[in-house]
Design goal:
Blueprint lengths: L2 H4 L2 E9 L3 E4 H11 L4 H13 L4 E4 L25 H27 L8 E6 L8 H8 L7 E6 L5 H15 L5 E8 L10 H7 L4 E10 L9 E11 L7 E6 L2 E6 L3 H17 L7 E4 L4 H10 L8 H10 L6 H15 L5 E9 L3 E10 L1 H8 L1
Parallel strand pairs: 4-5, 4-6, 11-12
Antiparallel strand pairs: 1-7, 1-8, 2-3, 6-7, 8-13, 9-10, 12-13
């Protein structure tokens, strides 16, 4: 069965949320230079990666993240003895993740014109914090979901988990068309800034930010759609061979320790073409590309491989520039920006593909079709 052609399973609504604290790249770099004044090689490395990473602004849930002098407990300081422990960071995560998740979820439900009581399944996604009872239990109460809603937490699966959740939701609705799935992704990446001058720590500090996103997935209702939507097609997940050491995310004493290899864009370039061929077979290439901007190099390699125009990668680059990499939450920021732009331009029906990448290395690929509101209503009347 070709879901792309024979199904109305769609993203019915999207919502996003950001913390209150916004900072410029220059502010973080200035603080790092101050903290690393005795490590000139680290300063040169930081200047280089901050200049090249494609990020201008980001958001954080921690107002003291980049305080100058001895005010910052997260970024490297000489002789600092007050570095936040993992337990303290998880306490902040618990406090700050809930309101962001609620805000994004409410926006998605409003966009889909659905009431919380209509949701049958709740998928919560995060790799930057954990607590129990978790975000899913709190959302049930706060959003007045049914206490019998099927809760599915996807935890500690990295940047690819947002798209994985969307693919899981599509499968659930394919099994029973009455299901309405709410996905909520919350990532507070900046809580894991490390008190280290190591290149890996500085690399992570250069482009990760905080944010939340949500969406509702179900069968299209033409009476409720007035903004266009994304109809979901087939997709798959793949664990790329011999890449397990290229992206590592482990729990440490001072937050989660991240290692990102500089080989990741090259490895994706080596394997991604074959995965796209497997997904599309003899079909023409899509026009719309929702690429998870895990870093500037990732977007660059996808653009080069598939000979995409600047417009086709604009949404991914724009989200990276304005918000940084928000881990699993990012793909819905990209799709929201794409949908709003297509609706504003009164664009016609267009085929698309969404791509996301995470530890493993894992690649998620999914077809979708943008349907203008008039097309949806005419096609179902």
């Amino acid at each position: 069965m070709n879901i792309q052609e024979n199904s109305n399973i769609s993203i019915l609504g999207i919502g996003t949320a950001l913390p209150n604290h916004r900072f410029e790249q220059g502010e973080v770099l200035e603080k790092l230079e101050e903290a690393l004044q005795n490590s000139p090689n680290s300063v040169r490395w930081a200047k280089r990666i901050f200049k090249q990473c494609g990020v201008a602004t980001r958001y954080t849930c921690e107002p003291n993240l980049i305080a100058h002098g001895s005010g910052s407990r997260y970024l490297p300081t000489e002789g600092s003895e007050d570095i936040p422990s993992t337990a303290e960071r998880m306490s902040i995560y618990k406090r700050e993740s809930v309101p962001l998740g609620v805000q994004a979820a409410k926006a998605a439900l409003l966009d889909a014109q659905l009431d919380g009581s209509e949701i049958t399944h709740l998928i919560t996604v995060s790799c930057t914090g954990q607590f129990l009872p978790g975000l899913d239990a709190i959302l049930v109460k706060t959003l007045e979901l049914s206490p019998r809603v099927n809760r599915i937490p996807l935890t500690f699966q990295g940047c690819a988990a947002g798209l994985k959740a969307i693919q899981l939701a599509r499968t659930l609705v394919e099994g029973q068309s009455s299901r309405q799935i709410l996905i909520v992704c919350v990532e507070l990446c900046t809580l894991h800034f490390q008190p280290s001058s190591d290149r890996e720590a500085l690399f992570g500090a250069s482009f990760f930010g905080d944010g939340a996103s949500a969406c509702v997935i179900g069968i299209t209702d033409q009476l409720k759609n007035n903004h266009g939507l994304f109809q979901l097609g087939e997709g798959h997940s793949v664990l790329l061979p011999n890449c397990s050491e290229e992206m590592i995310w482990e729990v440490g004493d001072y937050g989660f320790d991240l290692y990102l290899s500089t080989n990741i864009p090259k490895l994706l370039g080596q394997y991604l073409a074959g995965e796209m061929e497997s997904l599309y077979r003899e079909e023409p290439s899509p026009y719309l590309w929702a690429i998870h901007p895990g870093g500037r190099g990732i977007v660059d390699v996808v653009q080069q491989m598939f000979e995409l125009s600047h417009q086709q990668v604009h949404y991914s680059r724009s989200i990276l520039h304005d918000y940084g990499n928000l881990s699993s939450a990012t793909i819905l920021f990209v799709l929201q920006a794409m949908r709003e732009d297509l609706h504003r331009k009164q664009s016609d029906t267009s085929s698309g593909v969404a791509l996301a990448f995470g530890p493993g290395l894992t690649s998620e690929l999914m077809k979708f079709t943008y349907l203008p509101s008039t097309t949806v209503q005419d096609g179902m009347s």
